Amino acid sequence: MAIRPSVEGMTAEQLAALRDAWTKSQALVDDRGFGYWAGVHGLPLPISCRHSPRTQNDFLFLPWHRAYLYFFERSLQDRNKAAAVPWWDWTSDGSHTRGIPEAFDTKKIGKVRNPLREARVAISPDDVKRVRAQAPGTITPGKVPYTRRDPDIPDELPRKATIDSVLAAPTYEDFSTRVENVHNAVHGWVGGTMTLVPVAAYDPIFWAHHAAIDRVWYLWQMSPFGVDPPAAMMDTVLDPFPMTVRQTLNINNLGYDYAVEVIH
Amino acid sequence: MATMDALQPGAQPGVLIANLRYARRAEVARFQRADLVFNGVDHGGLSYEVRVFLNVPTATGATPRDPTKGYAGRFVVFGHGGCFGELGHCDVPSVRRDPTDLRPGHPLVPQTKIVTITTALERILDKRGTLETVALVPWIYNGFRRKNGCKPGVFKMSDVTLRTYG
Asked: Are A195 and B75 a contacting pair at CB < 8 A?
């Protein structure tokens, strides 16, 4: 059972394994590599991610992204067995002081580029042109586009009181709506690449952000308010993943867990 | 309910004012929860947030988000940044009624957003007795943060409704 650590709570060994896996993943240009997995969310088309409902009983934001993280984390573990996607605690004192966690912000480790700080945006030249024209500033200029960030002030990140109010949601639909709003706000907070659905997943911080969202869902599931999604959506397949909503509900069945109490 | 067409321009280009009157009535039990429900919210463009102020018709992008001065919360839209397909790719088809059509809905089907304003509305009713206006201040997120701000044309929806629950 893999325990997903908080970013700030990672040991040196855990961080080294994560960076090793990420570096190897970014070097692969086939459907095992980081570029492929980042592209599943948005570009290249089709845009597969699920957010707010498109129809009734279609609250797929949480299960779709749980499946997404599961398959991506497994691909990282194919590169380094000890790798686990950490979760970014946006409510911590550290986050409210420094913003982006150091592990994802440091430019270099020794003389080597930090793979968690940025990534190549592996999309077609036509899509690069469109992104630059339609959403200036979301990717870097130059022949090879990279992710970029432009974060807001640290104290604008979500606070514990906000997450507590999300965790008090009385229904699945209400919980999904509330937590998605927090999720959207953090995408806007990071700025740059993270502000745009089609390219957001190319920023490595996307994955730590979504692990945090997944953890909040897990905490709600264990709370007195936690209930399953509506029966009508339980057997919905989370395209393109061969997994149904029902199969995402128990994270232990997916081979990972979170430490509930976190001491920084 | 206030439709998009019925909204009035606010104190800054882009700001919209909904005239949503609500007064506490003695014969009706106090609500346990109050939501502003925004239907048909567009998410095809850049990301943005909409800040909600109660009884602050002068609200602008510079108005502090102070709960004691009418700020009631916000919703955030994670935008698609325009269309990345060929002509017609981002046209949202009308609702399908064929039960054998199992395809998922179009990614750009407009969304419903909810801002729970229970405490903010209670505060207004305790202080002034009546809710009269809801100011909606859209704040766009550009790739370059220095270009973020309150801009007209960013926020599109079909209608907004105040719902209270006993």
From this structure: no
Q: Which residue segment(s) compose the domain that B37 sits in?
A: 2-83+106-149
Query: Among B51, B78, B90, B95, which would you mutate to test the A interface (most chain A Cβ atoms within 10 Å of its Cβ)?
Result: B78
A183 touching B (Cβ < 8 Å): yes
Residue A195 with chain B: CB contacts under 8 Å: 46-47, 78-79, 141-143
Torsion angle (degrees, nearest 10) of CA B98, B102, B108, B112? 80
Any bridge partners for residue B79, and if so which?
A196
In order of start, what are the domains of chain A with their CATH numbers? 2-258 (1.10.1280.10)
B84 and chain A in contact, CB less than 8 A: yes
The answer to whether residue A131 neighbours chain B at the CB level (below 8 Å) is yes
Does residue A147 belong to the interface with chain B, where contact is any CB pair within 8 Å? no
**pLDDT tens digits, residue range A247-264?**
999 999 999 999 765 554
Nearest CA in chain B to A237: B104
Q: List the CATH number of the domain containing B12.
A: 2.60.120
Q: Is residue B96 part of a domain?
A: no
pLDDT digits (tens, 9 = 90+) for B74-109: 999 999 999 999 999 999 988 778 889 888 889 999
Phi, psi of B136 (to 5 degrees): -115, 115
Strand partners, A87: A6
> Nearest Cα to A41, choosing from A189, A191, A208, A202?
A202
This complex has an ipTM of: 0.95
